[in-house]
């Protein structure tokens, strides 16, 4: 649910990074935080456990610039990926405008990817959204690992709809901004349609 | 998709005025209004040294988590919350089921006064939100200026 303020001429949109545990959602946000200039970003907030696993969410506000005289801000959130934090994941999807699904390319995580994607669809439905109608992009992360599954196989299992997809290595930034730009464009296009 | 929150000049002015008055009447340090998705709507008082964007997001997270807890024990939600600190405390209340009014205050005022003033302001804000919803429907029919956004406008945002 974007927030449009005609008085202060601002548009605020919410993007959620979703995916199984340790797939690199927080790493995406950390890379974006480290590579954006101080005037365009707010504080990166991480509600995590002592072992740096996301407990509730990470949050990063980003100002992208102006569009038709409106300041455009994106609020990036991650969800906790571990299966047992489902109640928290559901809450974070409230008011979402766009989703980045971060998939872990390692062979042994394929089942976790599929389970998480299914969980995303269920949790979106719980919040009153239809998965097919929410602007979503797919990121195949950890492409640098030797046990990475081929893109064709990942596509077959995770992206039969053919939504925009990107290969990534989040710690070094490969594909991180391409993914962000892509989801931001989809969200703004949705806004244009009056969505 | 969930309904967009759209705010126009007159509503924004009314909401800011209510928040400004509340900050004064309750002698609160800061008053702010957030929607349940974590978007900051208005902030009044001594906001200079506070990261209001983070505050808004964490408030929404907190309200969502408490709402989840409430449902687990058979309540719909906890409409009011009080968090007591050593110097500053925080009182929040849910307005019109979808926004959250928060007051941060210290020992120059009292919880009783803050609660009383927040209750009054929350009723007023509820009425503004109602009229906002009515207006949004009629204004939506006129057409959104974002219908004019071109692919080029969107691309320009990312030209770095």
Would you mind describing this structure in some detail?
- The complex is a heterodimer of chains A (195) and B (160).
- Chain A has helices spanning 25-35, 86-92, 110-126, 151-158, 176-192; strands at residues 3-5, 10-18, 45-48, 54-67, 70-78, 98-104, 136-141, 165-167.
- With 195 residues, chain A is an alpha/beta fold.
- In chain A, strands 1, 2, 3, 4, 5, 6, 7 and 8 form an eight-stranded mixed sheet that branches.
- In chain A, helix 4 links the parallel strand 7 (136-141) and strand 8.
- The longest helix of chain A is centred in the middle third of the chain and has 17 residues, at 110-126.
- Chain A is globular and about 50 Å long.
- Chain A starts with a strand and ends with a helix.
- The mean pLDDT of chain A is 94.
- Chain B has 160 residues and is α+β, with helices and mostly antiparallel strands.
- In chain B, 48% of the residues lie in helices and 21% in strands.
- Chain B has four helices and six strands; from the N terminus they run E-H-E-E-H-E-E-E-H-H.
- A five-stranded antiparallel sheet of chain B has the order 3-2-6-5-4, with helices on both faces.
- In chain B, strand 2 (30-35) and strand 3 form a beta hairpin.
- In chain B, 35% of the residues are buried.
- Chains A and B meet through strand 1, strand 2, strand 4, strand 5 and helix 2 of A and strand 1, helix 1, helix 2 and helix 4 of B.
- Strand 1 (3-5) of chain A pairs parallel with strand 1 of chain B.
Mean pLDDT of chain A: 94
Low-pLDDT regions of chain B = none
**Model regions low in confidence, pLDDT < 50 over at least 5 residues of chain A:** none
- The helicity of chain B comes to 40-55%
How many E-type strands of chain B?
6
Rg of chain B, nearest Å: 18 Å
Biggest interface: chains and residue counts? A-B, 50 and 42 residues
| Alpha-beta content class of chain A | alpha/beta
Q: Radius of gyration of chain A from the CA trace?
A: 16 Å
């Amino acid at each position: 649910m974007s927030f449009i303020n005609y008085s202060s001429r601002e548009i605020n949109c919410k993007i959620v990074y979703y995916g199984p545990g340790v797939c690199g959602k927080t790493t995406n946000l950390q890379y974006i935080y480290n590579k954006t200039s101080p005037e365009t970003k707010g504080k990166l907030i991480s509600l995590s456990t002592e072992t740096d696993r996301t407990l509730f969410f990470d949050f990063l506000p980003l100002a992208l610039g102006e569009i038709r005289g409106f300041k455009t801000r994106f609020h990036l959130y991650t969800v906790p990926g571990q299966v047992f934090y489902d109640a928290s994941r559901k809450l974070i999807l409230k008011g979402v405008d766009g989703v980045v699904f971060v998939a872990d390319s390692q062979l042994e995580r394929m089942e976790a990817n599929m389970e998480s994607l299914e969980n995303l669809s269920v949790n979106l439905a719980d919040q009153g959204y239809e998965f097919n109608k929410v602007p979503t992009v797919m990121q195949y992360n950890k492409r640098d690992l030797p046990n990475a599954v081929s893109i064709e196989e990942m596509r077959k299992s995770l992206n039969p709809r053919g939504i925009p997809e990107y290969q990534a290595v989040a710690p070094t930034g490969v594909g991180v901004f391409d993914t962000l730009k892509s989801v931001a464009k989809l969200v703004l296009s949705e806004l244009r349609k009056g969505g | 998709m969930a309904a967009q929150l759209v705010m126009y000049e007159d509503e924004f002015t009314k909401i800011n005025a209510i928040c400004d008055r509340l900050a004064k009447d309750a002698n609160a340090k800061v008053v702010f209004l957030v929607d349940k998705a974590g978007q900051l709507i208005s902030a009044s008082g001594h906001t200079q040294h506070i990261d209001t964007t983070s505050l808004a997001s964490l408030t929404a997270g907190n309200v969502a988590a408490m709402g989840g807890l409430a449902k687990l024990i058979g309540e719909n939600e906890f409409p009011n919350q009080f968090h007591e600190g050593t110097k500053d405390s925080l009182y929040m209340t849910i307005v019109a089921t979808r926004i959250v009014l928060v007051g941060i205050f210290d020992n120059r005022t009292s919880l009783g006064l803050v609660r009383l003033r927040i209750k009054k302001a929350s009723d007023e804000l509820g009425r503004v939100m109602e009229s906002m919803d009515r207006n949004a429907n009629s204004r939506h029919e006129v057409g959104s200026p974002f219908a004019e956004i071109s692919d080029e406008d969107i691309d320009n945002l990312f030209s770095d």
